[in-house]
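Below is how a single chain appears once it has passed through the pipeline. First comes the sequence as given, then the structure the pipeline wrote out for it. We keep one example in the README because the format questions we get most often are answered faster by looking than by reading.
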Amino acid sequence: MDKLLRSQLETELITTEMVKHCSYCVMISPDPLHRTPIYCIKYSGSNTPILVNLATCLSCGAFKKCGLRFEQS
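Resulting structure:
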């Protein structure tokens, strides 16, 4: 169980590293077990962010437009 939780946390850390430069992302919760850790203004329609999960953020894809390139090893 501990190994599964550690793997999940590592995956979430990598994912949040990818999306933190998105222009719609206002903040990311520091709690790795938070179910909706991303404060996003894209889906709220205003300057007040709503909380979204990582899957929602990845499906939007706006983080890809920030110009960062991730190299695969």
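The longest helix spans residues 2-19.

See the next section for the split statistics.
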